[in-house]
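URGENT: need a sanity check before tomorrow's submission.

F., can you look over the Ribbon-helix-helix protein CopG domain-containing protein record below? I want to be sure the sequence and structure line up before it goes out.
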Amino acid sequence: MAEEKTRVDFNAPASLVERADTVAELLDISRTRLLIDALQDELDDLVTEDGFRTRLRDAYYDERIDFQTVQSVLGQEEAMRMQLLRASIDRDPPEPQLKADLPTDDEFYDGDVPVWQGDSEMPGDTDDAESTT
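Structure tokens as predicted:
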């Protein structure tokens, strides 16, 4: 299905238009085709630049542009990534809910404190670990 077209009218320096006409004639294409291809190439290059992506990301996170704009510029996959990240940034982290009361300090700290002894063997440790059978 052919995409809908929009007529664009703009002023450009005469020398640039002459150059475009010369190139279009050499390539045996219309000036319109040359300008569309050049614009598409420029936009494709632009979306790979980090500076542009940063500006686009900032505009999206600041809600100056919407999801559809990001999607039209970067594509579905990148736009979805940004949408998910924005949703996670905007979300308040959940507060942990305790199912029971916390123990009092006396209950928590009651009893003997175990002392670590580095030279003692752990259960299951054997001296035969270095030997092979």
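My own read: The first helix runs from residue 14 to 27. The two ends are 73 Å apart (CA to CA). If you see anything odd, call me.
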